[in-house]
Amino acid sequence: MHIQTAKTQLQSPSPSPSIETVIEMRNVSTSFGEHVVHKDISLEIHRSEIFAIIGGSGSGKSTLLRELILLQIPNSGSIKILGIDLNNINENDALALRKRWGVMFQHGGLFGALTIKENVGLPMREHNALSDAQIDDIADKKLVMTGLKPAVSQQYPSELSGGMMKRASLARALALEPELLFLDEPTAGLDPMSAAGVDELVIQLRDQFKLTIVMITHDLDLLWQVADRVAVLADGKVQEVGSMLTLSKSDNPAVRTFFMGHRGQSALVRNKKQHEALKE
């Protein structure tokens, strides 16, 4: 797969003849002691869309992600993923569900004592009855798919740049051919050129494999470039859900915060005209 290193013209959301809900959250509330993180959050995420969750520090983005990937249980409410209700899910069903999604963690989450190929192959060794040769072959293909050269497979995580680490982590997240992909700050800490490459890769993966992608990010350019819809969290609630173009016109103060200041205004100027052109 050829991955460009510069941002290309913005793409419009992938059309769908019928909307299928992949993730459904209803009245999810979460608290730690007296600290309330979420209050009656409800969201729907659709098949093959790129859905982003944004919010300020302490808004509960990471907590929400942990709840979606079965690392944390909310105090109340319900979450359904791929038709499975996470409330009271048993271990066998949880394992089967985890095999249907992939997670790219913010700091990579790769094991330092394993080579990159071994890291990517690890989910297959745990869950698939494949030979070592088959696993190595698939791992190599996943690495190439994410824009890494074959030689990288023999390196260790400590030997990779930040951008290469993100791609290797993404290759591992794709190891089991998931239907659903969770990305935690996929461009955090990257230089603009590396971040642009990740932007392109996210769109290509969605379009080629019809993945549903859920991401948490602070990268405003990434949001403009790839997100079909964005949910804004603030004060424990979903303040608004919509495209970046729609949100940029919102009068909600909690939403406006993301478009104010130097970074927000710069991203708005760089991207808004192209989005408006796509609407015409």
Task: Write a concise keyword list for the protein shown above.
alpha/beta; six-stranded mixed beta sheet; four-stranded antiparallel beta sheet; 10 helices; 23% strand; disordered N terminus
Question: What would a concise description of this structure say?
Answer:
The protein has 280 residues and is of the alpha/beta class. The protein is built from ten helices and ten strands. The protein has helices at 61-68, 91-98, 116-127, 132-145, 162-173, 192-209, 220-226, 244-247, 253-256, 261-279, and strands at residues 21-32, 35-46, 50-55, 76-81, 84-85, 101-104, 180-184, 212-216, 229-234, 237-242.
SSE topology sketch:
Blueprint (H helix, E strand, L loop, with lengths): L20 E12 L2 E12 L3 E6 L5 H8 L7 E6 L2 E2 L5 H8 L2 E4 L11 H12 L4 H14 L16 H12 L6 E5 L7 H18 L2 E5 L3 H7 L2 E6 L2 E6 L1 H4 L5 H4 L4 H19 L1
Parallel strand pairs: 3-8, 3-9, 6-7, 7-8
Antiparallel strand pairs: 1-2, 1-4, 4-5, 9-10
Helix pairs in contact: 3-4, 3-5, 4-5, 7-10
Characterise the protein shown here.
The protein has helices at residues 61-68, 91-98, 116-127, 132-145, 162-173, 192-209, 220-226, 244-247, 253-256, 261-279; strands at residues 21-32, 35-46, 50-55, 76-81, 84-85, 101-104, 180-184, 212-216, 229-234, 237-242. The protein is of the alpha/beta class and 280 residues long. Strand 4 (76-81) and strand 5 (84-85) form a beta hairpin. Helix 4 (132-145) packs across helix 5. The radius of gyration is 19 Å and the shape is globular. Residues 1-16 have low confidence and may be disordered.
